[in-house]
Amino acid sequence: MGSYLLSELKKLESPTIKEIRGRGLFVGLEFHHDLNINGNHFSKILMKNGLLTKATHDHCIRFSPALVIKKEEIDEAVIVIKKSLKEFEQYNETYKK
Asked: What is the spatial distance between Cα 94 and Cα 15, in angstroms, rounded to a whole number?
């Protein structure tokens, strides 16, 4: 399931994403460091949309789902992440430095 999660996240297209990397089900999404908002903001957007994550080092989000996660649950999470990325991009444009 870890390789499936990583492959699905790597399909995400956003100018805010610098890198997506992981090992097993421990996956990180790193944002570019010159954005107007950071990973903490994205973590809050995800929580509002129903997905709990952990922001780390201001510019990264850590995904670490349960080891018993199913493919369908990963698909649901990716839908939430895509929706949240759109919101994140809009907030980034709104909060100009």
From this structure: 15
- Give CA–CA dist 30/21, Å, rounded: 8
pLDDT digit string (tens) for the chain, length 97 residues:
999 999 999 999 999 999 999 999 999 999 999 999 999 999 999 999 999 999 998 999 999 999 999 999 999 999 999 999 999 999 999 987 5
Which runs of E-coded beta strand occur in the chain? 17-23, 26-31, 54-56, 60-63
| Ordered domains of the chain (ranges, CATH) | 2-94 (3.90.1150.10)
d(CA 51, CA 61): 12
- Strands 26-31 vs 54-56: parallel, antiparallel or unpaired: unpaired
Two tokens, residue 75 = 């698909």
pTM of the complete model: 0.92
One-letter identity of residue 40: N
